[in-house]
């Protein structure tokens, strides 16, 4: 199976309006920059985006918010994006805020083929509204459903032409689970190598999960919020 495509534009060429996309990354670390830029260029609308965060105003998913291409965000942390806040408060953007551990597990369960699970996170709060509640060992739990997507998009450090992926340090974050939860998975990589060049013991996502892969370019690797000490404090 030929999985290698020329670039991000070719990788997302069949995407249409009203789809659900799951995107890897944590803050601005390990986000699929090339594919996000291609989505902006393509201009598809009414997207439901599942991602731990919503980027910042001028980078990451913030670019898709700026162009009003996102209809709904399903995220855990959204505190660095003023445009997100504006759209949420004005009613322009539908938002489903999910506890971070629950979000990670819902994605992981989709990749494992498990449709639902129980968690104590959110019990007794607004998160529990409309959800099934059960008691196990004298403790209350909410039933949460697995999260699936039409497309999963991740960025890896290295990948080979079969789609095997290696992530570097914290860029693994949500991406290893997201790569397994989409009907079609797209991977952009910093280094596209030939089969056999990756150590099998160090592969984080097996190629069977990846449908398209390409060599990315011009990665910025921004820092979401830079903090420094003042006067040694």
UniProtKB/TrEMBL annotation:
Annotated GO MF terms: CoA-transferase activity
Keywords of this entry: Transferase
Top-level taxon of origin: Bacteria
Family, per entry: Belongs to the 3-oxoacid CoA-transferase subunit A family.
PANTHER family: ACETATE COA-TRANSFERASE SUBUNIT ALPHA, KETOACID-COENZYME A TRANSFERASE
Protein name (record): CoA transferase subunit A
